């Protein structure tokens, strides 16, 4: 029996029942929610390996649920929507979803997407867990020691301020995840309200000057225009 636990949140009973039946055939443990509020309640009560969220749900929509979960978790998220709109896809993926599929869909395609997500995150999770257990998260040309609070660029130790270090730690332990300025402010400054929108931008700019070969064309901390920032790095062996 699989230990993988999936949460499905959709206001259409037929969709919930269909997905639940097929995933249980794959020996997944499945919980269901009929709205975003119920989804968040269930998520806070149990540990899930994957979430399937409908974009359009009553009380709290899937986008809001995804944003809330992304503030504290890297759990894989697959978004469902009845809208065949590129803008919806962009919004869904840039607020933290890992994949996106439009209704009506092929159930076999959904199952295949889920399996692909699980494989990807099991590999990534294994790598990061191994690195974090050693105290070091390492990408090619850049590493951070989470226990000693030291950072090395091309094997040379550099000096970072406390906030710069917190930002880099967040980015490097969540590679490829897009963070909005508000999310970064909540995570690093522990505040839900940005008093000065330039605060995050200034710290990102200073951090880039210290870790990037070319700060004007960054390879690590990349701008996702109109949304925020994400960390991109080539995986390397732990040293």
Total number of helices? 8
CATH topology of the largest domain: Rossmann fold
Q: Stretches where pLDDT falls below 50 for ≥5 residues?
A: none
For the report, how would you describe the main beta sheet? 5 strands, parallel
Number of strands: 12
Rg (C-alpha, Å): 19 Å
Helix-strand string: EHEHEHEHEHEEEEHEHHEE
In the CATH classification, which architecture of the largest domain applies?
3-Layer(aba) Sandwich
Number of domains: 2
State the shape.
elongated
CATH class of the largest domain: Alpha Beta
The helix content is 40-55%
The multimeric state of the shown protein is: single chain
Question: CATH superfamily of the largest domain, please?
Answer: Response regulator
Mean pLDDT over all positions:
82
β-strand amount: 15-25%
Distance between the termini: 36 Å
Content-based structural category:
alpha/beta
> Strand order within the widest sheet?
2-1-3-4-5
Walkthrough of the structure:
The protein is of the alpha/beta class. The protein has two domains: 5-125, 3-Layer(aba) Sandwich (Rossmann fold); 136-231, Winged helix-like DNA-binding domain superfamily/Winged helix DNA-binding domain (Arc Repressor Mutant, subunit A, Orthogonal Bundle). It is built from eight helices and twelve strands. The strands form three sheets. A five-stranded parallel β-sheet has the order 2-1-3-4-5, with helices on both faces. It has a four-stranded antiparallel β-sheet with strand order 6-7-8-9. 28% of the residues are buried. InterPro entries: CheY-like_superfamily, OmpR/PhoB-type_DNA-bd, Sig_transdc_resp-reg_receiver, WalR-like, WH-like_DNA-bd_sf. Residues 5-118 form the Response regulatory domain. Residues 134-233 bind DNA. This is Response regulator transcription factor. It holds the Pfam family Response_reg.
